[in-house]
Amino acid sequence: MKTVYYGRISTTEGQTSASQIEDAAKQGVDAKHVHIDEGVSGYHIAPMDRTEWKRVMDKLSDGGVLYIRWTDRISRRYDELSRVMTELMGMGVKVICTLNGMVFDGTATDATQKAIRDSLLAFMAAQGEADYLNRKEMQKRGIDIKKAAGGYKGRAKTLDPATVKAWRAENGKSIAETAEHFEVSVATVKRYCQVEK
Predict the structure, then answer these.
(1) For a disulfide at 93, which of 25, 88, 166, 177, Cβ 3.0-4.6 Å?
(2) How many CB atoms are located within 10 Å of the residue 41 CB?
(3) How far apart are CA 90 and CA 116, in angstroms?
(4) Alpha carbon 188 to chain centroid, angstroms
(5) What pLDDT, in 10s, does the model give residues 3-36?
(6) Cβ-proximal residues to 164 (8 Å cutoff; 6+ apart), any chain
(7) Distance from C-alpha of 55 to C-alpha of 6, rounded to nearest angstrom
(8) What are phi and psi of 52, to 5 degrees?
């Protein structure tokens, strides 16, 4: 039976996929079956528009086991997550959330088990979207309060890739050392310096 892990991080600025890669290893998933979309919003970018998610769906087209940290890695939109999970269940995929061991079994045949599974999925999809929208609203409120008090400086300026690349070359530093110096992720430095992963 195929076993696949899917992860996603929204931005490569300050986030890394390291914890999800470690999570996959704990589940015993072979590294070649670990797929992580980096710098991809779970709210704004549909799963089928993501490179790694497409690979996951190809591998699981005739069933298998999919490990995810939590359902929001697939999508933070109610309709989208519901649609994708329904598709996975129809393909006979068992989806396991590693955060708490919750299992959504696409091989279930008992009507009651399927009803409980689908109801729980619907609730989680609704909760995921509500959580995302609530955080965005709270962020906006915080910015509005700071603006009113004259303390909002706006988002920090994005680093210039040429500056990062030049600093690294001048100082003979590694990717990791450069990332630490600029307080950005290793993935960002690799991208800025056009170094193969």
Answers:
(1) 88
(2) 16
(3) 16
(4) 16
(5) 999 999 987 666 788 999 999 999 999 999 999 9
(6) 178, 182, 184, 189, 192, 193
(7) 10
(8) -70, -35
